[in-house]
Every structure is written in structure tokens, then in C-alpha cells.
Amino acid sequence: MREPLLEIQLLTKTYFPARKQPLTAIKDLDFSVANGELVSLVGPSGCGKSTFINLACGILRPTSGQILLHGAPITEPIKDVGIAFQAPILLEWRTVLQNVLLPIEIIERKVTPSHREHAARLLELVGLAGFEDAYPSELSGGMQQRVSICRALVHEPSFLLMDEPFGALDAMTRDRMNKELLRIWGEAKKTLIFITHNIGEAVFLSDRVVVLTARPGTVRGIVTIDSPRPRDPTSADFKNIEAQIRDLIGELDEDGDQ
Asked: What pTM does this model have?
């Protein structure tokens, strides 16, 4: 087992809205993510994924439990994370290169020639060399999402959080982007937590799949995938792993958790 980069230890977050009953979004969430590992989180709507993202970034503080990064608890907003959301959220008035460099401007307050060279290398990595001066409106949805991945990587964070980054794309583009993501992940050698509702996508991408319950989200089970990449979604092994995850999710209905 590789050394853990992130350790999520009995993590619980309860909200206390004014004049309303307390709401527990996640409860006793407990798993780890190894350095360089690609882990997917799968669960029903309302399983606390947005809360988990905010906790992992240090934007929220847990009610109990903790998240350790390199063995130290995350207690405040951190810079050592890159995030890609379902929508690329690019600034339309900035070029591709300027969008990628935005985290550098915010974190470092100064963009150097080496930053520009690094951003250009990332754009080359995702197949967007030559589009540095293009604007988001001139790009397809898949190309825009590649820009958002470069933006998440440009400040060289220890780990990436991806929140259904391909959910808004058509099926063919989504398949291509999943293959592209594996290539980028392999070359960038980053730890990645990938949140998705698509079981097939999770099986195609992941070293492990963490299945979450509905609110309050907790770990129903963890499925390790040892199949070599690239994986064939039509193979019996792939289908068996999908069925294993579906069985875990199906237990939610049987237990009345949905």
C-alpha cells in the first residue's frame, strides 16, 4: 500500500441553520487516499459531496473528525489543491492562457515567464497548443473543460478534486475526456479524487471506488479495481465490478436510506 496523502478520519459535518433543525450532511466518513491514487466517490444525490469538497479545501471546518494532508490536519483554506467543476467556469474576457494562469495571479500575485512556460506545457499536454490566445467562446465544451483541468494543475497542487467535470458533456465527448483524463493523470502524476454519479465512469477511471450513502453521507463500501488500464467497458470483468458497486448502492434502498 502506498503512503497515504489524504486521511479522512471519522469526518462529520452538521449545519445549524437559524430556527431550523440541525442538518448532518456527512457522518463518520472514514477512508484514505494514497499518494498518486485515483479514487472515485459515488453516491446518490444529497450524499454530501459538496460538503466534502469544502472540507477538503479547508473552506469549512468539520463538526468532528478531521482530514489530514501529509499528516497535518486541514484547519483553514489551503492552496495545495486544484479543483475542476462540472462547468468549466472560464472567464469569457480572458484568453485560454490567461484563464489557466488565474490561480498563479491569486496565489503568487505575480506571473513570471516560468509560470507562462509551465502553463503552455500543460496546454500542450491536453492537446491545446496553439490555442493560448483563443477565447472560451471559440472552444468546444470538451476543450473548455481541458482548460479548466490545466487551471487546476498550474500551481502544482498535491491533489485534485474533480466534481463531475464531464457531466454536462455528450456521451461521446465524455468518453473521450475520460480517456484524456487518464492520460493527463498518468503524466502529471497527481493524486485525484473524482466525484461522479456514473458507475461506469468510476470503474473506467479509478483505482478504488468509495460508495457513499445518502444524507448523512458515510462509507457504504470501498471497491478496489485491479484491472489493467485501458479498461474495456464491454468485458465481463468490467461488468462484474459495475454490478458489485450497484449491489452496494442497491443496499441503500433495502435499508431505507434513500
From this structure: 0.90
Q: How far apart, in whole angstroms, are the C-alpha atoms of residue 48 and residue 60? A: 13
Domain ranges of the chain: 4-80+160-255, 90-157
Nearest Cα neighbor of 210 from 24, 78, 52, 87 is 52
Distances (CA, A) of 218 to 25, 52, 99, 168, 212: 9, 11, 36, 26, 5
CATH of domain 4-80+160-255: 3.40.50.300
Q: Are 27 and 217 in contact (CB under 8 A)?
A: yes
Angle (CA) 213-5-102 rounded to 5° is 90
Is omega for the bond preceding 113 within 30 degrees of 0, making it cis? no
CA dist 113 and 127 (Å) reads 21
Q: What are the pLDDT digits (tens) for 156-189?
A: 999 999 998 888 788 888 888 899 889 888 888 8
